Amino acid sequence: MYALEVNNLSKSFNSLKAVDNVSFTVPEGSVFGLIGRNGAGKTTTIRMMMNIYMPDAGEVILRGTKIGQEFKDKVGYLPEERGLYKKMKVMDTLLFLAELKSKKGRGIEKKALDYLKRFELLDRKNSKLEDLSKGNQQKIQFIASVLHDPEFLIFDEPFSGLDPINTDLLKDIILEKKEEGKVIIFSTHLMDFAEKLSDHIAMIDHGKIILKGSLNEIKSQYAQRNITIEVEGDSSFLEKVDFVEKVENFGNSIGVRVKESSQSQDLLKLLVQNNIKVNKFAANEISLHEIFVTLAGKDANNVK
Predict the structure, then answer these.
(1) Does the domain at residues 4-219 carry the CATH identifier 3.30.200.20?
(2) What is the rounded end-to-end Cα distance, in angstroms, of the chain?
(3) Least confident span in 145-154, 165-174, 198-207, 292-301
(4) Is residue 174 within 8 Å of 162, Cβ to Cβ?
(5) If we measure between CA atoms, which residue out of 58, 50, 81 comes closest to residue 152?
(6) How would residue 80 be classed by pLDDT, with cut points 50, 70 and 90?
(7) Can you give the residue ranges of every domain in the chain?
């Protein structure tokens, strides 16, 4: 049995079909990435999962039963549009939101203080939220979403606006929650984060799921005939080589797809013959970004 099943969800806003017959499954104890460009339908899908939006069609199944109010009691939810009581103090906010989930007492207070210390916000526990930066407000909302120890964690674009240090901290906490057996679902347009964190993914574009499943299996499937290279020298001639099907320049690295998997060694030989210094040559390797660009088209290049 899956922890969560999303079956044929659809949602329109006037003439806009925001989500179109979306289905995917989330295994128990996994980190699940709902990925796609901005405006692809990720947030609308999550809001339907949370019963914030009622779907035009479809349903969400929690461990075999259609979700209801009890699902919200089991979920820690970080919305894309952050919303906090700006006049409240940090600690008061955390304890208030925890109490809404029936968690209170000294144990929850200690836990809140521990999280504040970990995010280097302990000295701001009595500050009003309006006096914090947007990034620090986001950290408070993230703490609030995990403080009551929910079974499910749903994060909508959790890394947006965070610096690299706090991004790493969020990733660490997400992986800790996975080790505790929690089910984590997060949406992002940042493919590198999804690739590092996710066990399973669903890729959404223009409201439709265009790819879903185990990340390892997906990468294995799409990596065939694909080589990632890092070189010094002008390698633009590769675009004219007859056995090269596609060249994608990512700045620091280049993705090359050959027509036959056996031609990877021909590619390496050709680079050497052209006096190109090869710093990295990884056959059968492909990034999630490259897969997305392949499936969603060239206009997906602005998705990182």
Answers:
(1) no
(2) 33
(3) 292-301
(4) no
(5) 50
(6) confident
(7) 4-219, 225-283
pLDDT at residue 155 tops 90: yes
Side chain identity at 219, as an amino acid letter? K
Query: In CATH, what number does 225-283 get?
Result: 3.30.70
The pLDDT > 90 percentage for the chain reads 62
Q: How confident is the model at residue 63 (pLDDT cuts 50, 70, 90)?
A: confident
Rounded to 5°, the CA angle 256-260-263 comes to 70
- In this structure, which long-range contacts are made by residues 23-26, counting pairs with CB atoms below 8 Å and at least 24 apart in sequence? 23/58, 23/209, 24/202, 24/209, 24/212, 26/2, 26/183, 26/185, 26/200
Q: Which two tokens stand for residue 128?
A: 């009003």
The tokens for 274 are: 């052209």
Q: Give residue 222's pLDDT.
A: 84
**Can you tell me the distance from the alpha carbon of 270 to that of 267, in angstroms, rounded to the nearest whole number?**
5
212 Ramachandran zone, left/alpha/beta (phi>0; psi -120 to 50): beta
Distance in angstroms (rounded) separating the CA atoms of residues 266 and 81: 50
Buried b (16+ CB within 10 A) or exposed e, 206-218: ebebebbeebeeb
Q: What band does 1 get if pLDDT is binned at 50, 70 and 90?
A: confident
